[in-house]
């Protein structure tokens, strides 16, 4: 018997999968096709002209005051996007924080992120 792991799609997070410019963010914010809500997070979704999905994050100091917490949220969003990107169509997705995430556990934040990605995958 061989001990090779089962083959899965290559999951990586490249620069081409990120929204980088203010103009790219503005396109999504100005004319989103969908707005997906969770209790603390919200995502704006719009179809793009690229061959792959892209993700951006607008996480403000007002909603998440510490850099440690902002970076944690960003890492979790990037990780879930990296894992689920092969199942998404060519969409631009921008995440924002609606309410303070103070007091939420990592598991609860991850669940909210996953719920948004599930809604995107459905349609």
UniProtKB/TrEMBL annotation:
A Pfam family assignment: Ribonuclease_P
Reactions this protein catalyses: Endonucleolytic cleavage of RNA, removing 5'-extranucleotides from tRNA precursor
Keyword terms of this UniProt record: Endonuclease, Hydrolase, Nuclease, RNA-binding, tRNA processing
Molecular function (Gene Ontology), one example: ribonuclease P activity
Enzyme Commission code: 3.1.26.5
InterPro entries (UniProt xref): Ribosomal_Su5_D2-typ_SF, Ribsml_uS5_D2-typ_fold_subgr, RNase_P, RNase_P_CS
Top-level division of the source organism's lineage: Bacteria
Enzymatic class: hydrolase
Record text on subunit structure and interactions: Consists of a catalytic RNA component (M1 or rnpB) and a protein subunit.
Family recorded in the similarity comment: Belongs to the RnpA family.
Role description: RNaseP catalyzes the removal of the 5'-leader sequence from pre-tRNA to produce the mature 5'-terminus. It can also cleave other RNA substrates such as 4.5S RNA. The protein component plays an auxiliary but essential role in vivo by binding to the 5'-leader sequence and broadening the substrate specificity of the ribozyme.
UniProt protein name: Ribonuclease P protein component
Native source species: Psychrobacter glacincola
Gene name of the encoded protein: rnpA
């Amino acid at each position: 018997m061989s001990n090779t792991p089962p083959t899965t799609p290559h999951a990586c997070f490249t620069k081409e999968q990120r929204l980088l410019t203010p103009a790219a963010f503005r396109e999504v914010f100005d004319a989103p096709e969908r707005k997906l809500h969770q209790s603390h997070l919200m995502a704006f979704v719009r179809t793009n002209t690229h061959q792959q999905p892209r993700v951006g994050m607008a996480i403000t100091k007002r909603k998440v005051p510490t850099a440690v917490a902002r970076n944690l949220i960003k890492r979790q969003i990037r990780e879930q996007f990296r894992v689920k990107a092969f199942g998404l169509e060519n969409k631009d997705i921008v995440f924002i924080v609606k309410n303070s995430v103070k007091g939420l556990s990592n598991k609860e934040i991850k669940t909210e992120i996953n719920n948004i990605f599930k809604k995107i995958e459905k349609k």
